[in-house]
């Protein structure tokens, strides 16, 4: 495998492949910043590094590529991989527009390469267990999907500058929208979004927002409500709840450790402060699963269509917020495998 | 004092006045069902009972009346009290329409009688503490208001039949809307609601719904998201969160008792199953406060205008749900006391 | 009723009788500090106050007395009440020695007056529910009793000076020992105690300790472990656990409120800081129960023998700590009512 | 490295070395059951397996050995390793008697080989953090050590039969005693134990117990209380608390997952059911640390003397329980490295 883009997230994927997934072999990394590529290659004790995806995929010994570049380069990198017949794992969001998502789906299908978007929450052990409980009927029919995602602090301004304008829904909300589709086993039919710049004024410079609430209506009638927030100073906070006709499942990992410290200044517990801590297991499991899928010549559990649908929901949320009205989604049928 | 309407809720108010608020004297109760009025009078060891509000307010020794009838009779009863110059405590919702709310506000103002709607959560100790924390700046500027209210089971069909069509937002959501106004110290400028009949098909008969999600936009720009649900089989579940620029406050009283029972079939905690348990202190404190306001000739902490605004928000939510579009609220200025 | 001793605890009992237990009538209070007695009488709007128990019990209209003096005066006051044929509620510990406990048991029995010690935890709703769960077999046979009691701060030095030397086991441990007897439905057969002065050096002046761990062996073979601690700066902390052959029940009321405050400095919950807050319901319920027992001419649910046994366990713990060895308890049979 | 004894625990150590600790190379495994050794070697894709420790340590390419046999064989295996100049990691308890512990300490010291006992809790992330908080002064001076260890179910009878009589304190309590020494940074000066057969009658056959409570007195005066219980049907339950003069730290990992499931039958959370789940990170971290210590020619963070002291405390607890009296510990000075 090769990894393209070795910033914080890409480096984690590279480390997981190198150290913790023995079935995979990490051959090379690439990064637009060649010094960073060299540094990561050295740390991971691998030989090859490049500064373009094209250079990396020229290698015959690379069968699959993990794309972890800024989102605006996902499309280009996926196209290059498809052309070179490499299977692709691509971090979320799959692309920044629905049109580009449709294009890469079509391209990879024609090239016969696999495409898995990095929807890590589908691999988080607690979400996996919740999904199983729902399928086992523990809460009856799911009727209401609630989810919130709060970052401890905004991304660096350089990160915001690296995207397109107004990508908060694509960057953050995309997790919640995918989770909703998966947990409810349904498509989002319509949504309504409010957004605002309330705590991070710099967001406005990038035509972006830092706070959003989105109401969802699913195709079979269930409802949903999603929140995204950019600057929860107290920690990285992810909570999901699926309400069913016979009960509810709440997920929350606020507390990082089983320690409770009580002093005269109060009772204090730790909270998780970063998604790489919260979803450490998820990131490892998703890459393991991708590797096994490749080795067994199977189909990804989360595929390009899932990536496309999450992008479409985020785009609809963006439009709803901009236009001040509910937006219905066009939900194409899932493409049939040839 | 007199209490008009002594079903479950009215009886609780009567008991609180009779036994736990020594400054007040319970003189009489009234109920359309005279047998029930007689029974409650006997239990509370008071002498007088009637089957109409008019009969009750003829008594000279009654200075204030608590109205706890079905909501559709609130307006009539308030008018009668205003005419008889009795101060009024009225259970929520103040009225079923904004027009009627405006009318009773105007009437009571002219008559010089006080009017306090039963927005009990403003008296719940945990909400009171949270409000103080916000005012003390503990979480910086409040930017996001989240609230959910779930009943364990739908009201009896007779209760639904006693209201007007489609009163879920007025009956349940009115709590959340008032809480939002209070906690955020702001008016709701616009909202968007989805509603559905998902778990209690009988609701459709009454043109009502059992599930709702409502997004809020406050006048100064903050956002909000509210959920109401009619049939959370596991218990009565109320959760409120106010997110601020420097932190967040979460309120939830899911666990009724400090007991954790662990057996081979799992870990189990108790949950509250009824609002009269969850808000026992709140109901007592609000009536105590009303009594003291009367005795000290003061102005109610929660007044008719607050009741009117909550009714208006619920009506807007109903319209948004019916018409499938965001609805802006006309927010009149708070009337100045003469 | 009359209340003798109206410091913090006695005043609470007097308030409960005066305001919240309509079946009882509070006639008079007494306190060695007459000014305090007068002040409390004024606050409670009752007419009569005295500076001795003797003066108070001369009143014919007083049928029962609550004794809430320093523990070393309990014996004298109980004797006076027995002589005057008044029923007695007496705060814990019943007496400071087993010998005196036996004497007052005998005296009150002969006089035909009732005697209920203030073992408040038997009336705490969560402990009551736990007891019922155990009796219902939810955790099988109880085999292990764990309990801890931690005060937020030591009592005032004046309070320590008002007792006899070394009364930590009698003042604090007595709650745990009684709870153990009640929850396990068994007598303590033997115990072993370690004690130390670790955080409040002033305790040594009074030949007292601030920290204790006590192991228990019950008559039918079950084990127990108790902890008492005088200065848990973070709050008033009471935890009880009963382990059975089929599960366990944990009780803890550490968190006073359902609020969770999350800021950049961490996650914070409130804790209870005083036993009058933690056991507010218990204190009210125990006095209500005492009043009803008197009015119905019944036998107290918690009686003098229970008080005696708790005093005996505390005395044994003291001896074990002093002598550095396990101490067996002589457990007399419960006296049969004539 | 080689691993001797590849039952459940030994296999886990072997897996960690093979897959997750790249700096170490797993050369061979040994087990008295040769078929099991062969099976594990096959699963781990390594070439060599043996049925005796002697055969394994003949290999020149093995520098260090992890001993994970039944405890009664620890002494023999350590001796063999010392003779063959292999560094040793040995599962707890180091030995079954203090005498044998002293002997292996002396032998390994003379042979110049390192010896690390498997006190896994010293590597559990939450305990590590708690230790750091204590050292940072967050809770002032530690004055009270509380700890409990409960297994979900008794070990197989074959396991009990493989030990010596009455090894509950050595097998389970040894964890708590070591934790107490480490957290309090002090030696245990005296202890008192009660033990009983209350839930697992088979324990009596092996002269063993299933329930124990142990009071501790530390050298510098602090107190402690430990509980061990063999059959907590609801799960594997480990709780530790260190109370200091300025606060307390509670550790507990009862809840395995962040899921809360609420249905009509109540609120339910998951609990951990096995120590290999609860301490998965700890087992990996301790072996990583051992490997690094070997590679850097350092001294183990937890050494033979620590193992010896835990064994001595367990032996004293056993004696206290058998003889019904407190037992003082002889605490030799930590041997100075030559």
Number of helices of chain A: 12
Mean pLDDT of chain A: 92
- How many strands, which pairing sense, and closed or not: the largest β-sheet of chain A? 7 strands, mixed
Radius of gyration of chain A: 20 Å
SSE arrangement of chain A, N to C? EHEHEHEHEHEHEHHEHEEEEEEHHHE
Distance between the termini of chain A: 26 Å
SS class of chain A = alpha/beta
Residue share in helix of chain A: 25-40%
Unreliable residue runs of chain A: none
For the largest interface in this structure, which chains are involved and how many residues does each contribute?
A: A-B, 37 and 37 residues
The side-by-side strand order for the widest beta sheet of chain A comes to 12-11-7-10-9-8-15
Gross morphology of chain A? globular
Strand percentage of chain A lies at 25-35%
Which oligomerization state do the chains in this entry correspond to?
homotetramer
- Tell me how many strands of chain A there are: 15
